[in-house]
Amino acid sequence: MRDPRFDILFEPVKIGPHIARNRFYQTPHCNGMGNLRPQAHARMRGIKAEGGWAVVNTEHCSVHPTGDLMPEVLQMLWDDGDIPPLALMCDAVHEHGSLAGVQLAYPANYNGNRLTREVPLGPMDRPVSGYHPVQVRAMDKSDIRNLRDWWKAAAIRARKAGFDIINVDSNFSTIAFQFLSPRNQRSDEYGGSLANRVRLLKELIEVSREGAGEGVAISVRLIVDELFGDQGLRVADEGIEAISMLAELPDLWDLVVGTWADDSPTSRFAPENDHEPFMLGIKSVTTKPVIGVGRFTSPDTMASLVRRGVLDMIGAARPSIADPFLPKKIEEGRYEDIRECIGCNICVSSHFAMVNLRCTQNPTIGDEWRRGWHPERIGPAKSEKSVLIVGGGPAGLECARALGQRGYRVTLAESEKRLGGRVTLEAELPCLREWLRVRDWRVTQIGKMPNVDVYLSSELSAEDILEFEADQVVLATGSSWRKDGIGRASHRPLPLSSLMPLYTPDDIMRGRCPPPGDVLVYDDDHYYMGAVIAEKLAYEGAQVTLVTPAADISAFTLNTLENIRTVRRLQGLGVRMVTHTGLNGTDGDKATLYDVRTGVETILDTDAVVLVTARQPHGGLFAELSDMSGGPAVSRIGDCEAPAAIFQAVWSGRRFAEEFEVGATFRRERIDLAPSSSFDLVP
Ligand code: ADP
Ligand code: SF4
C-alpha cells in the first residue's frame, strides 16, 4: 500500500478546461522518432500514459516551413497532412486516460532552415546558432503578423489532432524567448523594456487560444533564468516579473533553467532537484499550476516540493524514460521497483544521433513498437529449459532478470565477490556513484525471483560450464582495457617502453595508481573515462596532462551535454588539456606525441602513462565452448561480444532474453507515397 505522505502526488490538478488525474507531468522531450517514425513515437508516449503520467507531451513541433527544425527528428504541423501522425499519439495517450500536449515551436535563431532554404526569421539580423553559414533576418511587423497566423493555424491543427494542451515554447531554441531575452536589441515595441520583449510571447499565447478554442488548455514552457549573468534573463528580476505580467494568461507554467545542458545536467555534475532555488516564489505571482524539473526519482522529494508550495506538478523527461511506470509504482507503494534514472544522458545522445531513443536503465525505450518490447512486461517462457549466465555485469544482470521474469530457470555465476561488473568498479570513480542504480535495481528484482539463483566468487571454466549441463549458456564475461595502445587513432600496437610505468583504467579502478608525479592520460576512447581518470588522479595530487587525438576533450560528451562542464572541472583541477594530438610511443621518461593534422612530433616528459584507448573482449570461453561438439547452445552478450557503453550491454542482455526461443522481430516505418501537399508559404 502507498504511504499516505505520497497521497498528495495523486491529487487531481486543473489545467484550463481539463483535469489532470495526478501531479505527474511528462515534459516535452526529444526521442529521435518524431514524425519520421510516428508509430514508434505514439507507442512510446502511450506507454508513458499507461504508466500513470497524467500529462504526456510531444517534443518540439515546428509550426511553419520558415522555421524548420531539420535535420533534427522532431514534429511538424505545417498542413493538415501532418495531423494523422500526431493523432496517433493523442489516441495512444487518451487510451490510458491521460492528457496529450504538443510543444509548438518556431526556431528562429536556432536553425538555418536547412530543409526548406527559407531565410530564417528572428528578432535581429544575426548568424544562426552553431556554425551553419547563414544569417537570420530581423522580423518586421508583417513577419510578426504572419508568424501569429502560422501559429494560430498550427494550433487549429493541434486541436484537430486531438491535443488537450498546446504548449507555447519559450525556450532558448524558440522565438518567444529570443524576443523576451535582454539580448534582443530591437528598438520597436517588441524590444527594449520587458513589457515590449514579452509582447510576442503574450501574442502567441493569445493566438494559440484563438486557434485551439475552448476545449484546449494553453501552457507556456519558459526559461526563468538564462544563467548568463547580467547578459541574460535572471529569475530574481525579469524572470519572475515576466511571469507576473502574464500570470493568468496561460493555464499552466512549465519552467526551465538555462540551456538544455543546464536544464538536463548529468549526475556527474548535479544532484536531483538542482533547479529548486530558481522555482522559489514563482507560485506567489500566479494561481496557475507551476511545473519544474530536476531528474526527480524520489517520491519524498516530489511530495515535499508540492507540500512546501514550490511546484504543483512534478515535471520529468529523463525519469519518465528510465521508468515509464514511475507514477504507477509510487501509487501502488512499489518504491523499490522504481527504475531510477542514473543521469547519464545517453537518452539525449539519441536525439543528436537522430535514432530511436535509448536509455541505460530502460532498454525497452524506443523499441516498444518496432520490436514489441514493453518496460514492465515480457513474453512467458516457451519451455522448461535452464539457462546458465556467466558474468554478473550489466549485460548478465539484465539478461538474468528478464529471463527470470519470463519464468525460465536461471543460474547466474559471477567470479567476483560482488555483482555489477564494470558498473560496480566505475561507480567508485569521481561522481559516478548514481550509476550503481543499474546494478541495484536488477539485483533487487532478481532477489524476488525464486527461479533465479546467483553464485558469487564463482569463476567458471569451460569444463565447469559443461559439467553444469544447462540447456543454454549465455556468456556475459565483459572486457578489459587494452594495454597496447590500439584504439581509434592507432590500429597497431604502439612502441611502448617497459621502462615507462603504464596503467589502464582497470588498474586505477582496482587501486593500482601511479605514484605522485607527472601523468599523461591518453584518451583515445573519447567518452567519460579519460576525463574521469584524469579527475581522480588530479584529486590525488598528480600533475595530469590529458591528451586526445579528437578535436574536443571527451568528444562524445558533446552528445550528452557534459562537454563544457567536463572541461570546466578539469581546468579547475589544474589538468592540462591537449587536443588534436596522438601518441606515437614512449621511452623511459618521455612520451612522443604528434599533431593528428600535421604529423609534427613533440616530446612530453612524464613519469607515467595511463592508456584509455579500447577494450579487449573476454572471448576465450566462447571460443573454447564453440569448438566443443555436443555441448550446450552458447551465446555471448554485452562487452564480451563487443565492448560498448553500459546502455548497450543492458540492451544486449534484454535482447537475448526477449528473443530466446521466440526469435527477433524488427518493424520499420516506410514513407507512404500518398498524394503530396503544397501550400503558399506566406498567407
Ligand atoms: P558487461 O558490461 O558486458 O556486463 P562487465 O565487464 O561489466 O561486462 O561484466 C562482466 C562480469 O563477468 C564481471 O563481473 C566479471 O567478473 C565476470 N566474469 C568474467 N569472466 C567470468 C567467468 N569465467 N566466470 C564468472 N564470471 C566471470
Ligand atoms: Fe536517465 Fe541515462 Fe536513461 Fe537518460 S539514458 S533516462 S539519463 S538513465
TrEMBL record:
Alphabetically, the GO molecular function entries are: FMN binding; iron-sulfur cluster binding; metal ion binding; oxidoreductase activity
Q: Which UniProt keywords apply?
A: Flavoprotein, FMN, Iron, Iron-sulfur, Metal-binding, Oxidoreductase
Give the NADH:flavin oxidoreductase/NADH oxidase N-terminal domain ranges.
9-336
The signal peptide here is none
Protein name (Swiss-Prot/TrEMBL): Dimethylamine/trimethylamine dehydrogenase
- The TMADH/DMDH/HD second alpha/beta domain covers 504-596
Q: Which cofactor does it need?
A: FMN; [4Fe-4S] cluster
InterPro entries noted in UniProt: Aldolase_TIM (IPR013785), FAD/NAD-bd_sf (IPR036188), FAD/NAD-binding_dom (IPR023753), NADH:flavin_oxidoreductase (IPR051793), OxRdtase_FMN_N (IPR001155), TMADH/DMDH/HD_second_a-b (IPR054428)
- Matching PANTHER family, A to Z? 2,4-DIENOYL-COA REDUCTASE, 2,4-DIENOYL-COA REDUCTASE [(2E)-ENOYL-COA-PRODUCING]
Give the highest taxon in the source lineage.
Answer: Bacteria
- Give all residue intervals belonging to the FAD/NAD(P)-binding domain: 386-483
Record's keyword annotation contains Iron-sulfur: yes
What lineage does the source organism belong to? Bacteria, Pseudomonadati, Pseudomonadota, Alphaproteobacteria, Rhodobacterales
